[in-house]
Write a sequence for this structure.
C-alpha cells in the first residue's frame, strides 16, 4: 500500500507546484511608488553610522544633510559663499579668534525641544570628546576634550561662542562648519540615551555621549526624521512636521540599497524606484534617451590622479613629470571611460570650491612628450610601474595610459590590486606611480591644499602622511604659502593665493590629475525639483515633490 | 551469566560505543574548527592590507592610527594575537566589524536568514525538479528527453549567473511584470513589517499577514528559481548517473521478472537506492548555496551573507570575514551531520550497525 500513497503524494505535490507557477504567471503586478513617497535606488552599503559625530561616509552625509541642521551652510546659488542656517547672524572678533553666533529664535527639534546654544555646545563637545573619524574637523581648531567647555560654549540660550587657536581665515572656519560633523543634536534627547562607560587611557570620559544609540537613531531638527535603517536594505525617512528651517514637500523618502547599475535602470523603468543613483555610462545614455525620464549630474569633490613617487630616479626629473602629463589621452578617456561619471580636471581644487581653477593646459601630445624625455636624457624612455585598483573606470584608464605611454617609449607595467591593498602600498610610498583618488574632507580649499602642497618632513619616519609626502615630494616654499593662505582674512586675496598654488602644482607637481568625479542620477519626470548638490552634504531631498 | 546481566552488559557496551562515537565526533569537530580558525586567521594576517587603515580610514592622524593599532592588539606577536582571537571565538565573541561597527555576531544574525531563505527555496526548486528530470533522463537514456535534460543542465552549468540574472529580470520583471524587484519586500512593507526570525516567508505566514507573504514570495521566486536552476543542473546530472547505475542492477531484473510495473520499479525500487548518494549531492549543493551567492545577491539586492563577506573582505574587515567563515563552516558541518542522519533513515543497513 505504500507505493500508491507515495505516488499520490507525488502527484499532489506536482499539482501544487504547477498551481503555484500558474498563480505567479497569472498575477500582473502594479508597480508604482506611492504618490507621497520618493524611492531612490542607491548603493548605501557604505552607511555604517547615522551619528553626525561619527559619520564620514557619502550616504551618511546625504542623510544628515536632510535630517539635521547646522549653524551655517553653503549658499547653494554660489557655493563659495556662506549663509546662516540655525544662526541668524555671526561676528568674528578682530583677532580672528572668537566667533559669536546668534541663533534664530523659536527653533525646535523634531522632538519638540527648543534649539538653544546649549545644544550647539553639546554637539561640539560630543564631536571633540568622541574623536571619531571626522573629529579632526573640529579639533584642528585647537579644541580638545580638556578645553572644549571653554572654547565652544553657550553665552546665553541664543548665543554660542567658538574660540579657535589661530587667526585662521574666517572663510576657512565657516566652510568647515558647513560640514555634517557640525550638525546640531538634540541635547535633551541624547542625554536620555547615554550609556555609562568606564574611563580608560583611550577614552577618558564616563559616558558614550549617546553614540551607541545615535548610530542608528535620530536627534535632529531637519526636514526629515528617521523611521528605520536596515543596513544594506533600506533607509526610511519621514517628514518632520516640527521642522522650522526647511519644510519637506513629500511625506516619505526611502533609500533602497541597490548596488547594480542595470538593476537600478530596470527598477526605474518599471516604476519601482523614482531615482536611480548609481548608473553606469551605458545605462545613463539609455535613460537619457527614454521618454519620461531625465538625467542630471553634478561634479563632486573627488579627484582622480596619478601620484608620481619622487623616489623613482626617472619620475624625479621635472621634464619626465611634464612628459607624463602630455601622454594622457584626456579626450579619449572623457568620451568613453568616464563619460557621464567624470569630467577632465587638471588642478588640485575641484570645480565648485573657492579658488578652483579650470585650466587644462595638457592634452595628448606625443611629440612634445618625446622632446621632454630627450631633454631629460631619456630619449628611449624607461620602464615604470603603476599601482591601480581592480575597479572601473580606473583599471580601464590605466590600460589607456599603457598604450599612450608606450608611444613615447615609456614601458608601463600595471600592478592591479584590491583598493585597500593599493592604498596600503601607496601610503607606505613603495610605489613608482599610483592611481589615487582624493575627496575633499570639507568644502574649503585648505582641505586639498593641505595634502597636495604640504610636506614639512620628507623623511620615511614622518608622521604626516600627506599626498605630497606619499609621493616623496618636498614642496619647498609652497609649504609656507599654504600656511599663509589659511590665515588670509581677505577672501579675494585668499582665492588668488590658492590659484597661484594650483598653477605651480600644475606645472611641476608630482601629480597628473586626470578627472573630477561627476555624480549622475536618472529619474522619472514625475519627480520635480530634484537636483544634486556640489557635495553629498548638499544633495537635498526636501524640495522634491511628485506629480 | 543471567540474561539480565547480559543485557546490562550489552547496554553498557552500547553506551560506551556511543560515548566513543561521540568523543571521536567531538575531536573531529574540534580539529576541524581549529583548522578553520587557524587558516582563516593567518590568511587574514598575511594579506598585504593594513587592517588599521580599514578602521580609521585614509585621513586619520598618525596618533589615531597608533592608538587603534594598540587597541586592536596588532602590535603583539602573531601567535599571541591568534590565542586572543581563539579565546574570544570560543566565547562566541567574534569581535566588532570595522565596516559596520556592529558586533560581527549581530551582523551575521541579520544577514544569514536572508541567505538561508533564498538557499532553501533554491534547493527545494533544484531538488524538486532536478531529481525527476534526472530519473526521466536515465530511464529514457539516449532519447530526446535525455538530450533536453542534458542541454538544460549544460546551460545551467555554463551560463554566468550574473548574466542570466539580469536577463531574467529583464524578461520576468521588466517585460512580463510577473515578479517583484528589488530586495526582499516592496517599499510599502519596508517600514511596516517587523521580521521575527528574518525568514520573511515564514514570519509572514506565522503572523498571518498573507499580503506580505505573497509579496515576499514574488520577491524571492526569481532569485530562488535562478539558484534552483543552478542546483538543478548539478542534481539532475548526478541523479541520472546514480539511476543508470541502479537500473543495471540484478534486483531490477528480478523486480521486472516479478512483474512489477515499470513505474514502481523506477520510482520506488531504483530511486530509493539511488537516494542515498543523492542526499549527499543535494546536501552539498544546499551548503554551497548557503555560502551565499555573491553575484545573485548583488543583482537582486539581496542582503545576504555572501555580499557581507565579500564586502568585508574587500575592506580588510577581518573580524567579519573570520566570523562569517566560521558560520559557514558550522553550516557545512551541520549539513553533513544531517545528511548522515538521513542515510540512516534511508539505508536500513546503516541503521542496523
Amino acid at each position: 500500500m505504500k507505493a500508491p500513497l507515495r505516488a499520490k503524494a507525488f502527484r499532489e505535490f506536482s499539482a501544487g507546484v504547477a498551481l503555484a507557477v500558474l498563480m505567479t504567471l497569472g498575477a500582473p503586478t502594479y508597480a508604482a511608488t506611492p504618490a507621497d513617497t520618493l524611492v531612490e535606488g542607491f548603493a548605501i552599503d557604505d552607511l555604517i553610522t547615522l551619528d553626525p559625530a561619527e559619520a564620514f561616509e557619502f550616504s551618511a552625509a546625504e542623510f544628515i544633510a536632510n535630517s539635521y541642521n547646522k549653524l551655517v551652510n553653503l549658499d547653494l546659488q554660489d557655493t563659495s559663499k556662506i549663509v546662516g542656517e540655525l544662526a541668524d547672524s555671526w561676528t568674528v572678533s578682530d583677532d580672528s579668534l572668537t566667533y559669536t553666533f546668534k541663533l534664530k529664535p523659536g527653533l525646535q527639534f523634531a522632538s519638540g525641544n527648543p534649539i538653544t546654544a546649549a545644544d550647539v555646545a553639546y554637539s561640539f563637545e560630543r564631536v571633540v570628546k568622541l574623536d571619531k573619524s571626522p573629529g579632526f574637523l573640529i579639533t584642528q581648531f585647537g579644541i580638545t576634550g580638556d578645553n572644549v567647555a571653554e572654547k565652544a560654549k553657550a553665552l546665553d540660550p541664543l548665543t554660542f561662542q567658538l574660540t579657535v587657536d589661530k587667526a585662521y581665515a574666517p572663510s576657512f572656519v565657516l566652510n568647515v562648519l558647513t560640514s555634517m560633523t557640525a550638525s546640531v543634536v538634540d541635547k535633551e534627547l541624547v542625554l536620555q540615551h547615554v550609556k555609562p562607560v568606564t574611563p580608560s587611557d583611550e577614552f577618558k570620559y564616563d559616558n558614550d555621549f549617546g553614540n551607541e544609540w545615535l548610530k542608528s537613531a535620530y536627534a535632529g531638527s531637519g526636514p526629515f526624521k528617521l523611521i528605520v535603517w536596515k543596513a544594506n536594505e533600506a533607509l526610511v525617512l519621514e517628514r518632520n512636521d516640527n521642522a522650522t528651517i526647511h519644510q519637506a514637500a513629500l511625506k516619505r523618502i526611502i533609500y533602497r540599497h541597490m548596488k547594480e547599475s542595470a538593476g537600478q535602470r530596470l527598477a526605474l523603468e518599471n516604476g519601482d524606484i523614482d531615482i536611480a543613483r548609481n548608473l553606469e555610462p551605458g545605462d545613463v545614455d539609455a535613460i537619457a534617451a527614454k521618454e519620461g525620464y531625465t538625467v542630471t549630474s553634478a561634479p563632486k569633490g573627488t579627484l582622480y590622479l596619478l601620484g608620481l613617487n619622487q623616489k623613482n630616479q626617472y619620475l624625479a626629473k621635472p621634464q619626465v613629470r611634464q612628459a607624463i602629463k602630455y601622454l594622457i589621452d584626456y579626450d579619449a578617456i572623457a568620451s568613453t571611460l568616464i563619460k557621464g561619471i567624470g569630467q577632465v580636471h587638471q588642478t588640485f581644487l575641484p570645480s565648485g570650491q573657492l579658488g578652483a581653477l579650470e585650466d587644462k593646459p595638457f592634452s595628448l601630445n606625443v611629440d612634445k612628450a618625446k622632446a621632454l624625455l630627450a631633454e631629460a636624457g631619456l630619449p628611449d624612455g624607461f620602464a615604470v610601474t603603476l599601482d591601480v585598483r581592480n575597479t572601473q573606470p580606473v583599471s580601464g584608464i590605466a590600460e589607456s595610459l599603457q598604450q599612450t605611454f608606450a608611444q613615447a617609449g615609456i614601458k608601463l607595467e600595471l600592478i592591479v590590486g584590491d583598493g585597500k591593498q593599493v592604498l596600503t602600498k601607496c601610503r607606505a610610498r613603495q610605489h613608482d606611480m599610483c592611481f589615487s583618488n582624493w575627496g575633499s574632507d570639507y568644502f574649503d580649499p585648505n582641505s586639498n591644499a593641505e595634502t597636495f602642497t604640504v610636506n614639512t618632513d620628507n623623511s620615511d619616519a614622518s608622521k604626516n602622511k600627506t599626498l605630497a609626502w606619499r609621493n616623496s615630494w618636498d614642496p619647498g616654499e609652497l609649504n609656507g604659502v599654504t600656511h599663509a593662505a589659511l590665515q588670509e582674512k581677505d577672501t579675494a586675496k585668499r582665492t588668488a593665493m590658492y590659484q597661484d598654488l594650483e598653477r605651480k602644482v600644475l606645472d611641476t607637481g608630482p601629480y597628473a590629475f586626470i578627472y573630477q568625479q561627476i555624480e549622475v542620477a536618472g529619474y522619472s519626470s514625475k519627480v520635480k525639483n530634484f537636483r544634486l548638490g556640489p557635495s553629498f552634504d548638499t544633495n537635498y531631498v526636501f524640495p522634491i515633490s511628485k506629480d | 551469566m543471567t540474561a539480565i546481566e547480559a543485557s546490562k552488559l550489552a547496554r553498557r557496551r552500547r553506551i560506551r560505543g556511543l560515548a566513543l562515537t561521540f568523543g571521536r565526533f567531538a575531536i573531529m569537530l574540534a580539529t576541524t574548527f581549529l583548522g578553520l580558525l587557524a587558516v582563516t586567521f593567518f590568511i587574514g594576517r598575511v594579506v598585504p592590507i593594513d587592517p588599521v587603515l580599514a578602521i580609521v580610514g585614509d585621513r586619520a592622524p598618525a596618533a589615531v592610527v597608533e592608538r587603534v593599532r594598540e587597541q586592536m592588539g596588532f602590535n603583539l606577536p602573531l601567535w599571541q594575537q591568534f590565542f586572543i582571537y581563539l579565546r574570544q571565538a570560543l566565547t562566541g565573541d567574534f569581535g566588532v566589524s570595522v565596516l559596520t561597527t556592529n558586533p560581527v555576531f549581530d551582523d551575521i544574525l541579520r544577514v544569514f536568514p536572508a541567505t538561508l531563505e533564498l538557499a532553501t527555496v533554491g534547493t527545494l526548486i533544484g531538488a524538486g525538479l532536478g531529481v525527476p528530470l534526472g530519473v526521466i533522463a536515465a530511464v529514457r537514456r539516449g532519447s530526446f528527453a535525455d538530450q533536453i535534460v542534458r542541454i538544460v543542465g549544460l546551460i545551467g552549468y555554463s551560463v554566468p549567473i550574473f548574466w542570466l540574472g539580469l536577463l531574467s529580470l529583464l524578461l520576468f520583471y521588466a517585460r512580463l511584470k510577473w515578479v517583484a524587484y528589488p530586495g526582499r519586500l516592496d517599499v510599502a512593507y519596508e517600514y511596516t513589517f517587523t521580521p521575527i526570525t528574518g525568514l520573511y516567508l515564514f514570519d509572514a505566514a506565522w503572523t498571518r499577514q498573507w499580503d506580505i507573504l505573497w509579496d515576499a514570495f514574488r520577491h524571492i521566486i526569481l532569485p530562488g528559481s535562478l539558484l534552483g536552476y543552478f542546483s538543478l543542473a548539478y542534481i539532475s546530472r548526478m541523479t541520472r548517473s546514480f539511476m543508470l547505475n541502479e537500473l543495471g542492477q540484478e534486483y531490477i531484473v528480478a523486480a521486472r521478472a516479478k512483474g512489477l510495473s515499470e513505474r514502481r520499479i523506477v520510482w520506488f525500487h531504483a530511486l530509493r537506492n539511488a537516494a542515498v548518494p543523492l542526499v549527499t549531492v543535494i546536501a552539498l549543493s544546499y551548503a554551497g548555496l548557503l555560502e551565499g551567492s555573491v553575484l545573485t545577491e548583488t543583482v537582486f539586492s539581496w542582503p545576504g551573507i555572501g555580499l557581507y563577506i565579500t564586502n568585508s573582505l574587500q575592506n580588510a574587515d577581518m573580524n567579519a570575514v573570520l566570523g562569517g567563515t566560521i558560520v559557514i563552516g558550522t553550516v557545512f558541518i551541520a549539513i553533513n551531520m544531517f545528511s548522515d542522519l538521513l542515510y540512516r533513515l534511508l539505508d536500513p543497513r546503516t541503521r542496523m550497525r
